[in-house]
Amino acid sequence: MPIVTIQVTREGSAPGRDSVTTEEKAALIAGVSQLLLDVLHKPLEATFVVIEEVELENWGWGGLPVPEYRRRRAAGNS
């Protein structure tokens, strides 16, 4: 029984969006499940997919909190 965890940032992928849509989550679940069926022959009904949305303040990049990393990068101080 495979369990796949997908972590995505809660920011969303388009301006003004603050999370992944229900339709996008469904597409991720279907796509990952199909991939495991195609590659590992794991039946769809035995595959579990967990999607975790990560708040901006809960992740870092380049050794810094993401907002600070982005500020420095925008200022040319990466």
Question: Your description of this structure?
Answer:
This is 4-oxalocrotonate tautomerase family protein. Keywords: Isomerase. Residues 2-66 form the 4-oxalocrotonate tautomerase-like domain. InterPro entries: 4-OT-like_dom, Tautomerase/MIF_sf. It comes from Mesorhizobium neociceri. By secondary structure, this protein is of the alpha+beta class. The protein has one domain: Macrophage Migration Inhibitory Factor (2-Layer Sandwich). Helices cover 36% and strands 23% of the residues. The protein contains two helices and four strands; from the N terminus they run βαβββα. It has helices at residues 22-40, 66-74; strands at residues 3-9, 48-54, 60-61, 64-65. A two-stranded parallel sheet has the order 1-2. Strands 3-4 form a two-stranded antiparallel ribbon. Helix 1 (22-40) links the parallel strand 1 (3-9) and strand 2 (48-54). The longest helix has 19 residues, at 22-40. The chain is elongated. It starts with a strand and ends with a helix. The mean pLDDT is 90.
List keywords for this structure.
two-stranded antiparallel ribbon; alpha+beta; Macrophage Migration Inhibitory Factor; elongated; 4-oxalocrotonate tautomerase family protein; 78 residues; two-stranded parallel ribbon; 23% strand
